[in-house]
TrEMBL record:
One of its GO terms (molecular function) is signaling receptor activity. PANTHER family: IONOTROPIC GLUTAMATE RECEPTOR. Disulfide bonds join C761-C815. Residues 1-20 form the signal peptide. SMART domains: PBPe. Residues 470-812 form the Ionotropic glutamate receptor C-terminal domain. One of its GO terms (biological process) is cellular response to oxygen-containing compound. Its main location: membrane. The chain crosses the membrane at residues 592-610, 652-676, 835-853. Glutamate-gated receptor that probably acts as non-selective cation channel. This is Glutamate receptor. Belongs to the glutamate-gated ion channel (TC 1.A.10.1) family. InterPro entries: ANF_lig-bd_rcpt, GABAb_receptor_plant_PBP1, Glu/Gly-bd, Ionotropic_Glu_rcpt, Iontro_rcpt_C, Iontropic_Glu_rcpt_pln, Peripla_BP_I.
Length: 936
């Protein structure tokens, strides 16, 4: 039995699966070999080497981490060279290493990741931040610090927070720089921002190269600079920018976390270098405060002293320290799952005739996939805070600090986290609350910008050495009061629109060189939509003039704030309407007259019914009662009725009716007064609705958007539309009319029509303005000049200058001063429907109450008619109508007599009972009935 167990243990120790995992737990080796690739000639390489060595020492001194196994880290210098990085990686792969920490550079990581994929060796980098390294192409690359994708998202959110729209990217043209800027472009696009110019620099760029690049940058309009480079190159860029006068008012410099690394590690910078960075913004990876972090920071000076280096500690050192711990915990779990350190030859390398390269010495790590899985499953708390990975292989909840370089130091102005954006409180305090990315919740402390100013830079200026803007101006043939070329010139224009533009552009705080170019031949009005399209094609840089802001045009360009309102209106001939013998009927429509007359009769009838049994004024022969109803009804119009109402219900109905009559009378009087005293104009066309329903031709201005609107929005057939060019053409077409080859009406913008009607009083605007738009100046999409010009136009409107320009060019309006008025709508029934409803409801309720009351009286006075089954229905109805027609006093007196008779009968019954005599009750009742009949 002892021999059996011995053989079993030997078999389990030697056997392993294809994944490098034994069926049972294997024995842990005494030493685990791990490689580390750094660039010792850089500040980051020096400090991270110290952090890696400190982590190895702490792990090996704690037997509970690896269960007694020691971690051996072999460090090699890549010397910041892609070629040497490949050589060092191959040297590592020739040894039995489980993983590689590094490389430090994204460029080297791209190359080494391919080797790691082939040999299945996990590659853990805390400094290669290129976002594309997280792609599926590199499954064995593990980034142990936040990706540049999040850093670029933070920068994009800062730009959007300050409402800038275009930035200039200055970067090193390698994998690190290009892919980082590509990520920035993606993040800006999500916020409708963009990179207007990419200033690329070669990796080995000199100071002269930086000068050439910045000179080109200075010629651009944007003043928002994003610098994404290496620490060794970044300071040269800022130094040259200071030399060129670009660290000054109006500029914004945003540096990625290379600048915060210099500020943290290089110690106090010389005054001249610090002055170059004044006002710049940079990002630093945020690591929350904790006891672990405090202990490590307190040890840092001792660690760097032992290593013989000087300088502070950056976040790279913290992430390098946690990376080693992450790998150690993954290795420990690897062994706990039965992982075995074993290697096998790569068949493809064996088949290759490598010659002196000795490629066949490199082996595949059989447990690489299992170790990789355990790396992503680690969930720990390190010196950088909670440490773990998401499903997309990025660190959990990345965050950055926003740093403002000021004077001789720098200050923290806020935070950014992927959870809730910009804030002035640490991100860890927000994780317990729901994410809130509303604009009001995005906050940063005040920033001191370049030039020692706290006022937010505009972010865009027109450079003094920039080219002239090519601004198109419609060369109109008509309505030149708005815009027209000065006779005898080619580039001089005048008019209302031109003066608004020149006045607004003079308010800008920077010079804008421009040149006006005529668009059109001057004989026909040009089409504004084509002019706008040429801006998108790059033929013109802008367009000014009488350009209407429409939906289709806003999809192509950006417009300024409208400087004049001008919607579409209908203009048609009108004629004066004189009063005639039947003018008194005009205030009301036919339906209004009819309903009013009906209600007079209805109310009179209701009052008669309510008063008939009580009031002698409403009794008598039928002919008299009919005359009374008619007289009472219509006399209420003048409050001249002589009949008094005595019933409560009648008085209520009459009170409501007199109020209705008061309103109708007042409205009629006011309308009739207007008809007889104000000169009125009439036209068969009342507005766009009546024009659409006809088949008459319609005129429109040549080149105007009105044509497309009438066809596409109102469905008018193209054959009905007649293009017109000059105001004289308008007048002739309207005078001729449809019967003589003219038009029934013209549809055009109000601004043109008011000028046209100023000297042509035989025409008028009919109906309401049926579109709401205005005129604005057109610029390319996302042009900052459009925003600044809009601000200038608002200033002109607020200080009254815009109205002064309007009065100067468009004040000659003559017809509006005449006491003329287009015939308005007559008083409609719907205007009084509420009053009629209340009156009708009062009449109905009064009749209903009256009917209930008289029915109760009838049942009380004629109970026999209810119980008599032999009576016919017609007889009962006749009896009820006779009762309703009878005066109420007669009914009451008869009721009293009946009560007396009933009392006498009861007395006789009592006497007969006392005397013992029996009298036939039927005889007594018959006598009572006879007596009642005689009284009737």
């Amino acid at each position: 039995m002892r021999l059996f167990w011995t053989l079993t243990l030997i078999f389990l120790y030697n056997g392993h699966s294809s994944e490098g995992v034994n069926s049972t737990l294997s024995a842990r080796p005494k030493i685990v070999n791990v490689g580390c690739m750094l660039s010792f000639n850089t500040v980051v390489g020096k400090i991270t080497k110290v952090a890696v060595e400190a982590a190895v020492e702490d792990i090996n001194s704690n037997p509970s981490v690896l269960g007694g196994t020691k971690l051996n880290v072999a460090t090699l210098d890549s010397n910041s060279s892609g070629f040497l990085g490949i050589v060092e990686a191959i040297r590592f792969m020739e040894t039995d290493i489980m993983a590689i920490i590094g490389p430090q550079s994204s460029v080297i990581a791209h190359v080494v990741s391919n080797i790691a994929n082939e040999l299945q060796v996990p590659l853990l980098s805390f400094a290669a931040t290129d976002p594309t390294l997280s792609s599926l192409q590199y499954p064995f690359f593990v980034r142990t610090s936040p990706s540049d994708m999040f850093q670029m998202a933070a920068i994009a959110e800062i730009i959007d927070h300050y409402e800038w729209r275009e930035v200039i990217a200055i970067y090193i043209d390698d994998d690190f720089g290009r892919n980082g800027i590509a990520a920035l472009a993606d993040q800006l696009a999500k916020r409708r921002c963009s990179i207007s110019y990419k200033a690329a620099m070669k990796p080995e760029a000199t100071v002269d190269d930086a000068r050439d690049v910045l000179v080109q940058v200075a010629l651009r309009e944007s003043r928002i600079m994003v610098v994404h480079t290496y620490p060794s190159k970044g300071l040269d860029i800022f130094s040259m920018a200071r030399y060129l006068g670009m660290i000054d008012n109006g500029y914004v410099w945003i540096a990625t976390h290379w600048l915060s690394t210099i500020l943290d590690t290089a110690g106090p910078l010389p005054p001249d270098k610090k002055e170059n960075l004044d006002g710049a913004i940079t990002l630093r990876i945020h690591t929350p405060d904790s006891e672990l972090k405090k202990k490590f920071v307190s040890r840092w000076s001792n660690l760097t002293g032992k290593a013989g280096i000087t300088g502070g500690m950056s976040t790279y050192a913290l992430y390098a320290y946690d990376t080693v711990w992450l790998l150690a915990r993954a290795i420990n779990e690897f062994f706990n799952q039965g992982g075995n350190i074993s290697f096998s030859k790569d068949p493809r390398l064996i088949e290759q005739n490598s010659g002196s390269l000795n490629l066949d010495s490199m082996s595949i790590f059989d447990g690489g996939k299992l170790l990789l899985d355990n790396i992503y499953k680690v969930n720990m708390t390190g010196v950088t805070g909670p440490y773990g990975f998401t499903s997309d292989r990025n660190l959990f909840r990345p965050a950055f600090e926003v740093i403002n370089v000021v004077g001789t130091g720098f200050r923290k102005v806020g935070y950014w986290c992927n959870y809730s954006g910009l804030s002035i409180v640490p991100p860890e305090t927000l994780y317990s609350k729901p994410p809130n990315r509303s604009s009001s919740n995005q906050q940063l402390h005040s920033i001191i910008w370049p030039g020692q100013t706290t006022e937010k830079p505009r972010g865009w200026v027109f450079p003094n050495n920039g080219r002239q803007l090519k601004i198109a101006v419609p060369n109109r043939a008509s309505f030149r009061e708005f815009v027209g070329r000065v006779p005898g010139t080619t580039d001089s224009f005048r008019g209302y629109c031109i003066e608004v533009f020149t006045t607004a552009i003079n308010l800008l705080p920077y010079a804008v060189p421009y040149k006006l170019l005529a668009f059109g031949d001057g004989h026909n009005n040009p089409e504004d939509t084509e002019l706008v399209r040429l801006i998108t094609a790059g033929v013109y840089d802008a367009a000014i003039g009488d350009i209407a802001i429409t939906t289709n045009r806003t999809k192509m360009v950006d417009f300024t704030q409208p400087y004049i309102e001008s919607g579409l209106v209908v203009v048609a001939p009108v004629k004066q309407q004189n009063s005639n013998a039947w003018a008194f009927l005009r205030p009301f429509t036919r339906r209004m007259w009819f309903i009013t007359g009906v209600f007079f009769l209805v109310v009179g009838t209701v009052i008669w019914i309510l008063e008939h049994r009580l009031n002698d004024d409403f009794r008598g022969p039928p002919s008299k009662q009919v005359v009374t109803v008619l007289w009472f009804s219509f006399s209420t119009l003048f409050n001249a009725h002589r009949e008094n109402t005595v019933s409560t219900l009648g008085r209520i109905v009459l009170l409501i009716w007199l109020f209705v009559v008061l309103i109708i009378n007042s409205s009629y009087t006011a309308s009739l007064t207007s008809i007889l005293t104000v000169q009125r104009l009439s036209s068969p066309i009342t507005g766009i609705e009546s024009l659409v329903n006809t088949k008459d031709p319609i005129g429109y201005q040549l080149g105007s958007f009105a044509r497309n609107y009438l066809i596409e929005e109102l469905g008018i057939h193209e054959s009905r539309l007649v293009p017109l060019n000059m105001p004289e053409d308008y007048a002739k077409a309207l005078k001729d009319g449809p019967s003589h080859g003219g038009v029934a009406a013209i549809v055009d913008e109000r601004a043109y029509m008011e000028l046209f009607l100023s000297t042509r009083c035989q025409f008028s605007i009919l109906g309401q303005e049926f579109t709401k738009n205005g005129w604005g100046f057109a610029f390319p999409r996302d042009s900052p000049l459009a925003v600044d010009m809009s601000t200038a136009i608002l200033k002109l409107s607020e200080n009254g200058e815009l109205q002064r320009i309007h009065d100067k060019w468009l004040s000659g309006i003559a017809c509006t001063s005449q006491n003329t008025k287009l015939e308005v709508d007559r008083l409609q029934l719907k205007s009084f429907s509420g009053l009629f409803f209340l009156c009708g409801l009062a009449c109905f309720l009064a009749l209903l109450i009256y009917f209930v009351m008289i029915t109760c009286q009838y049942c009380h006075y004629y109970p026999e008619s209810e119980s008599s089954g032999g009576s016919s229905r017609s007889g009962r109805l006749q009896t009820f109508l006779s009762f309703a027609d009878e005066k109420e006093e007669s009914v009451r007196s008869r009721s009293k007599r009946r009560q007396l008779d009933a009392t006498s009968v009861r007395s006789v019954d009592q006497d007969a009972s006392v005397n013992g005599s029996r009298i036939d009750r039927s005889e007594i009742y018959s006598n009572r009935v006879v007596s009642f009949g005689e009284s009737v």
